[in-house]
């Protein structure tokens, strides 16, 4: 298979224009860490952003950073850390769950709307994304958004590109706003709560004025012999100390919460962020289910009534990571029925054998009116249909 690795946006535009002219489907990749996510590729060549590297703007005072799409994420994070700053949305590293190698890239963070536990406080990646450059399916370089918040005007292609998984264009540069690293980070841990009690405790904490930046629950057997309910608090040291005390008093009927800090706290949230508790066994299918936080335990109970499964919760119960047997439809019918019964939400198949991902809708099936809109957006940006065809939805 041919691999194109342009070293500039202009070169990428020429490659895309030529591929469109001969209707050559392209697989768009950055570091390749999420290559097994989505429906199986239906391409004839690979278009890599790996040669589009380099940080193009960093204004610590404006709290904005921009880099070409192929720039390793670790390089950007190291630069920010050196100035006491960070990406607000805590992007997931898919390598532990997908068993992939390579280096996550800055552009892929935007393309996948890659967001972690801090989303409940800081928003998703798309909420911090303020500018993009990309090449559309006609081979035209497009710029949308700005490099400072006050310059973000016009048609919001920025949000459209975020989470499009490379189906609308090749991102060549992305710009994110950043935040300061917090002076103190601590995690409250409640032990022994069943799912419903844990979500009740998380809801109480999230509804309080004491500002959590993480709210997760790990049932027994997921990351230890007993359940653990995790609540992260960040900020100035004096503020964190006060809020921890108030939260412990608020939640005392759920048990005596312990405080975890430093490397141990960071490891807990890294595991939640990356889905590590469900990484093994490798042959299991893994789903990412979004629902209303208070509905999380009912959704998992309904799924468990239909097939064996293991799970944990993030976002106060609103995000469920669930592993089940990959045979048949990998649980798609049972899982999506449970989500539908909850009245809100969607389910995405994150990990499964290629044959399963070809047979089962990986992303939540769209109602016909939304599917027509999706197809129309695809046609407008990629009229020849050459970018990652079928990766999100069959035929698009």
From TrEMBL:
Recorded GO MF terms: glycolate dehydrogenase activity
InterPro entries found in the cross-reference section: FAD-bd_PCMH, FAD-bd_PCMH-like_sf, FAD-bd_PCMH_sub2, FAD-linked_Oxase-like_C, Oxid_FAD_bind_N
TM segment ranges: none
Residue stretches making up the FAD-binding PCMH-type domain: 1-181
EC number(s) recorded for this UniProt protein: 1.1.99.14
PROSITE patterns on file: FAD_PCMH (PS51387)
Enzyme class, broadest EC rank: oxidoreductase
UniProt entry keywords in alphabetical sequence: FAD, Flavoprotein, Oxidoreductase
Gene3D superfamilies recorded: 3.30.465.10
PANTHER family recorded: D-LACTATE DEHYDROGENASE, GLYCOLATE OXIDASE SUBUNIT GLCE
NCBIfam families linked to this entry: PRK11282.1
Protein name per UniProt: Glycolate oxidase subunit GlcE
């Amino acid at each position: 298979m041919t691999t194109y690795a342009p070293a500039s946006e202009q070169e990428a535009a020429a490659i895309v224009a030529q591929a469109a002219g001969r209707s050559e489907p392209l697989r768009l990749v950055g570091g390749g860490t999420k290559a097994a996510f989505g429906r199986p590729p239906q391409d004839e060549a690979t278009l890599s952003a790996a040669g589009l590297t380099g940080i193009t703007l960093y204004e610590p005072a404006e709290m904005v950073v921009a880099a070409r799409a192929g720039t390793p994420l670790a390089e950007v994070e190291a630069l920010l850390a050196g100035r006491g700053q960070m990406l607000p949305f805590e992007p997931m590293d898919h390598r532990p769950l997908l068993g992939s190698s390579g280096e996550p890239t800055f552009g892929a963070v935007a393309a996948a709307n890659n967001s972690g536990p801090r989303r409940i406080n800081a928003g998703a990646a798309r909420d911090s994304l303020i500018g993009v450059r990309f090449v559309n399916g006609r081979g035209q370089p497009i710029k949308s958004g700005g490099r400072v918040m006050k310059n973000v005007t016009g048609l919001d292609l920025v949000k459209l590109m975020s989470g499009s998984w490379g189906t609308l264009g090749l991102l060549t540069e992305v710009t994110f706003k950043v935040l300061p690293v917090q002076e103190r980070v601590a995690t409250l841990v409640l032990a022994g709560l069943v799912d419903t009690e844990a979500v009740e405790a998380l809801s109480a904490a999230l509804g309080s004025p004491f500002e959590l930046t993480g709210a997760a629950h790990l049932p027994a057997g997921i990351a230890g012999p007993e359940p653990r309910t995790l609540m992260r608090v960040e900020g100035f040291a004096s503020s964190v100390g006060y809020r921890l005390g108030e939260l412990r008093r608020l939640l005392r009927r759920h048990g005596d919460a312990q405080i975890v800090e430093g490397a141990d706290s960071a490891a807990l949230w890294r595991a939640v962020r990356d889905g590590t508790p469900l990484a093994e066994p490798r042959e299991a299918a893994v789903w990412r289910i979004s629902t209303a936080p208070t509905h999380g335990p009912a959704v998992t109970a309904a799924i468990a009534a239909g097939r064996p499964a293991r799970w944990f919760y993030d976002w106060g119960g609103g995000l469920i990571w669930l592993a089940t047997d990959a045979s048949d439809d990998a649980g798609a019918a049972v899982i999506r029925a449970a989500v539908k019964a909850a009245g809100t939400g969607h389910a995405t198949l994150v990990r499964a054998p290629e044959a399963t991902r070809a047979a089962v809708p990986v992303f939540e099936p769209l109602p016909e009116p939304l599917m027509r809109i999706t197809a129309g957006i695809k046609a407008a940006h990629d009229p020849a249909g050459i970018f990652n065809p079928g990766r999100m939805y069959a035929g698009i």
